[in-house]
Specification:
elongated, Lipopolysaccharide export system permease protein, membrane, LptG/LptF_permease, transmembrane helix
Length: about 350
């Protein structure tokens, strides 16, 4: 249908314009934040620019719902200002038919974002974090002196520092017996991580706790079969939001199978799904803004939609953090705001149409 394609093209142009406005703005804030670290270690201005550039796909994904809102309002608002929507209505095209074009563009946008989320954004974000940490002489774990902590049924593992993907430093292993009591403590200066999950511990001190006392032994090297593979270790050192959906699913399953808290990773996973729903909600609200106030100027619509977008963004962040603090169900916390907005938009659109 010619009119369907025409509206879809106008909406797509609106999304491109909104991206060209919002993405550089958010990236500028990222750059300002990075410039504060220039001069520390070997971190230079060019590193700050590279870090910001590599975060562009992640920032685009984060602001995509609000790009959809502003872009669609701008596109349909321009059609309304030029009386094109009135002409379409006069020709017998219903508001529902007009709304199908932006919704189709929105679905295409969600598919594009899904591809970025799985294959582009995580890899670039993780590379940016790694490069920045190396330049600042930092590690990506919980903090210097705290290290990375994880466990399974009978072992608690602390990695003080990941030197690189195949080598770690300051390793502690606490082995528990079948009754849950500490039976052995192993400390190693470093560890070489092999692909078959076998670690070669270097400069090792082993303390075994027996009924007769503590038995201490030392060794230059000791083989230890880890319950972590290199991919699991890499995942532990990455922020939850930087992981792809497949990585999050696997890591949440690993944490839960070993009795660990997986809420932050589960929330990050469900928020990726919630972002798609939020994009649909923003598209529906943008349609409501146009048909619900067709007499108001385009500038007023853009300002009002921008305020709505900011309010929704802040509310979504507050709900996510509050849900994590209160230990609410991650799926509910991530999906409920978007579902409420969609239901509200459907209710209001039915009144308008």
């Amino acid at each position: 249908m010619i009119i369907f394609r025409y509206i879809a093209i106008q909406v797509l142009i609106g999304l491109i314009i909104a991206t060209a406005v919002l993405l550089p703005l958010f990236s500028f804030f990222d750059l300002l934040d990075q410039l504060d670290d220039v001069g520390k270690g070997t971190y230079r201005t060019i590193d700050a620019f590279m870090y910001t550039t590599m975060l562009l796909p992640r920032r685009f994904i984060q602001i995509a719902p609000f790009i959809a809102l502003l872009g669609t309002v701008a596109a349909l608002g321009a059609l309304a200002v030029n009386s094109e929507l009135i002409a379409m209505r006069t020709a017998g095209i219903s508001p529902v038919q007009i709304s199908l074009a932006p919704l189709a563009v929105g679905i295409a946008l969600i598919v594009f974002i899904a591809g970025l989320e799985q294959f582009v954004a995580p890899q670039l974000q993780q590379k940016a974090i790694s490069n920045r940490a190396a330049a600042l002489n930092q590690t990506a774990e919980l903090g210097r002196g705290l290290g990375i902590w994880t466990r399974n049924e009978q072992n608690i593992l602390r990695i003080g520092q990941m030197l690189h993907a195949k080598r770690a430093a300051d390793i502690e292993i606490l082995h528990l017996d079948n009754t849950g009591f500490l039976s052995a403590h192993i400390h190693a200066q470093s560890a070489d991580i092999r692909n078959n999950d076998a670690w070669i511990l270097r400069q090792v001190i082993v303390r075994k706790f027996t009924e007769k006392g503590i038995l201490l032994t030392r060794a230059e090297a000791l083989s230890w079969r880890s319950f972590l593979n290199p991919e699991d270790i890499a995942t532990l050192t990455k922020p939850p939001e930087s992981l792809s959906p497949f990585e999050l699913v696997r890591h949440v399953d690993f944490l839960r199978s070993t009795g660990q808290d997986a809420d932050s990773y589960a929330l990050a996973l469900w928020r990726k799904a919630g972002s798609a729903l939020l994009t649909i909600a923003m598209l529906m609200l943008s349609i409501l803004f146009i048909f619900g106030s067709i007499r108001s100027g385009l500038a007023n619509k853009l300002v009002f939609s921008a305020l709505i977008g900011v309010a929704v963004y802040l509310l979504d962040q507050i709900i996510a953090n509050a849900g994590l603090l209160l230990r609410l169900d991650p799926a509910f916390v991530a999906l409920a705001p978007s579902i409420v907005l969609i239901l509200l938009a459907i209710f209001l659109l039915r009144r308008v149409f």
